[in-house]
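Practice problem: predict the structure.
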Amino acid sequence: MPSIHRPHAAATLRDRADVTPLELFFDLVFVLALTQCTALMAHEPTWEGIAKGLLVLGVLWWAWTAYAWLTSIVDPEEGTVRLAMFAAMAALLVIALCVPEAFDDLGLVFAGGYMVVRAAQIMLMRLGSRDDPNLRQSTNGLAIGTAIGTGLLVVASQLDGIEQGALWAIALGLDMAEPYFFGAEGWKLVPDHFAERHGLIIIIALGESIVAIGVGADEALTFGISAAAVIGVALAATLWWAYFDVVALVAARRLANATPGREQNEIARDSFSYLHFPMVAGIVLLALGIKKTLGHVDEPLDVEVATAMLGGLALYLLAHVAFRWRNVHRFSSQRALVAALMLALIPLATGIASIATLAIATALMVAMIAYESWRFAELRDRLRHQAAPAS
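Answer:
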């Protein structure tokens, strides 16, 4: 079996678990992309506008997660990989700048930029698979799925209306379904790195909710706006707690303890590549609601925005329910209940002040966190303080 430490001018296989500075630098472009998605939906707060924002977010997410897999195979700071990562960053930046007009005049530029981002990832995957036939075969399958998805986005750029949206959805669905078509046996990853990378992207998404507070409070600072800002930060803190207090630890250890190969790769695919997307989408939808709340704290939310904010919180929590089930096969009834309460709150949110809706949602999340901290205190203490097993 070839050594993973053998140097190569083009690419070196990863042999360390920590996230590198270059990966963090790369993720900064994704910050702008998330902000642009929120801005797209805020500019067009209709069902159609929200659907567009989620489709763009899905494409951006799949581009990001492709690089999470890549940098868990090859070292991003060795060989020519560093230069390729910079090129991919530039292309991703162009994509982010195109987001507001991705369904209009800049659709073709968006599709072209996405094609460059994914092509660079596949090229680097092939370099990393030079001594591994199984990984090379999986990379070839990925190239086929990516070519179809990007080609459909190019065609969609020449359409409009429902046909354009449908083609976007098909392109995204086919691209994301590709791992099922070509199997998971051939992939590789460093478990601790892969889990940490996804935890950091949750931090970045939560940062977007904080940015939304600043953007939303563009009027003269009043007591109501200040109160809504504080409540918004508290709500973001509960989302952080819900993920990082215990869930992230359990998921990381489950991934590290899985048998390398198909079992470990399928857990990474399902728990991280797939189930982290609804978490990020939920946070972005919440950011939209917070932004609109800060703009008009005394007015009710429109039904579309209320659905986005409260539905986003429900989506985030239900993703956690599925995440827990996938990793430890246990159902989180309290999170499912709070998700249902968020959805039930939508009709009320269209008739009361938006700051009141924000406060009620925050109170529900705080109550859930308090209950879990009390109900699972012993388990929580054991999980947080026991020594992590070697991966």
